[in-house]
Amino acid sequence: MKKVLVLGAGLIGKTIAIDLSKAFEVTCADMNLSSLSELSSRFPIKVVPINFLDKVELEKLVAPFDLVIGAVPGFMGFEVLKNIISCGKNVVDISFFPEDPFLLNELAIKNNVTVVVDCGVAPGMCNIIAGYHNKQMKLTGYECLVGGLPVVREWPFEYKAVFSPADVIEEYVRPARYVEDGKLVTKEALSDCVKISFPETGELESFNSDGLRSLAHTMPDVKNMKEKTLRFPGHVELMKIFRETGLFSKEPIVINGQNVTPLELTSKLLFPKWKMKPGEKDFTIMRVVVEDNEQKITYTLYDSFDDETQTSSMARTTGYTCTAAAHLVLDGMFWRKGICPPEFIGEEEKCFEFVVNYLAKKNVIYKKEIVSINKPELTNK
């Protein structure tokens, strides 16, 4: 039986470990002993406490494994991934670090490894969809709207996070890049806020965030590409106030003779407010639109908390995309060497179909609609 190491036992990391343990021998590593204990007591998963940034310790840990899953916080993701690649291990990563993953491409090729990065829901599944259709029909346009939100809206934020608040805040401060008329355009995060309604959720607001990531590099012929984040109305204005006040700043300030980093303080204060409580329900909403000169294809996802397994929707939609990719690598269906963003998986038709079917079996279902631009009849598939 092949061996898989999952680095990270957070809400998404543990979902990945549980799912993969059904087919592989899984070990999960983390610094949080209580999270590890919960996993090992309920599932056939070995656990190991580790400091992810201890390079020597990490090298010893990864040695016997066929595949490593990176599910660590974004601020350490790049360095951890670099160390894993240096050990000659195949990786599927969802740490969503801010650095350019292609900086590690030469290292990955040198070590003859497959490194799938950004393999969650968005980035992740939206890239897989884009890669597949760009191969099939040579896209002229791509847009992704996506958000993970609590079912119950609680004042003042009406938002909950299943990962580090600092990583969420990155969406609110990092400049948003998108492609317009073939040119790379940069705008501040939280800009171009537009209201949009979905049948399942009612009115939401969409805003610019830096979610396009690798697509601007790997699909340069697509003239228009944009990704926007979805939140409940009012959230954008509140986050703008926080940002302009300086509460998201990484520059230390002096208070009573002590250096204090506003972002660290804000993260500490927000975490209790944004943390999902046990059994608290969430949903994921995503709409991906791809088009060429002849047709427009829309994929829509609405996924909700799984009552039976007590698994959050964000963990399901992110984690199961990752585990689908893990199966592809472990089973030899996807073997491209170097840094591989999810669109590379989508380019392979068999891989695309495998991921869609894998998710459907987990009841993560992407509804597909096709509209002919010249003949506006609607076809559901």
Structural class assignment: alpha/beta
Tell me the CATH superfamily of the largest domain. Dihydrodipicolinate Reductase, domain 2
CATH level-1 class of the largest domain:
Alpha Beta
What CATH architecture of the largest domain do you see?
A: 2-Layer Sandwich
Note poorly predicted spans: none
Shape: globular
DSSP, total strands: 19
The value of Rg in angstroms is 20 Å
Give the N-to-C terminal Cα separation. Answer: 37 Å
What percent strand? 25-35%
Helix fraction by DSSP (H/I, runs of at least 4): 25-40%
Task: Describe the oligomeric state of these chains in a short phrase.
Answer: single chain
What is the CATH topology assignment of the largest domain? Dihydrodipicolinate Reductase, domain 2
Number of helical stretches of at least 4 residues: 13
In the sheet with the most strands, the strands line up as 10-11-12-7-15-16-18-19
Mean pLDDT: 93
How many domains, as an integer? 2
Largest sheet: 8 strands, mixed
Could you give a quick summary of the protein structure above?
This protein has 381 residues and is α/β, with parallel strands linked by helices.
Molecular structure report:
This protein has helices spanning 11-20, 33-42, 55-62, 74-86, 105-110, 125-137, 165-173, 215-218, 235-245, 262-274, 313-330, 342-347, 349-361; strands spanning 3-7, 25-30, 45-49, 67-70, 91-93, 114-116, 141-150, 176-180, 183-187, 194-198, 202-208, 224-231, 253-255, 258-260, 282-291, 295-304, 338-340, 366-372, 378-380. The protein has 381 residues and is of the alpha/beta class. The chain folds into two domains: 3-122 and 313-363, NAD(P)-binding Rossmann-like Domain (Rossmann fold), CATH 3.40.50; 125-304, Dihydrodipicolinate Reductase, domain 2, CATH 3.30.360. The strands form four sheets. Strands 10-11-12-7-15-16-18-19 form an eight-stranded mixed sheet, with helices on one face. Strands 3-2-1-4-5-6-17 form a seven-stranded parallel sheet, with helices on both faces. A two-stranded antiparallel ribbon has the order 8-9. Helix 1 (11-20) crosses helix 11 and helix 11 (313-330) crosses helix 13 (349-361).
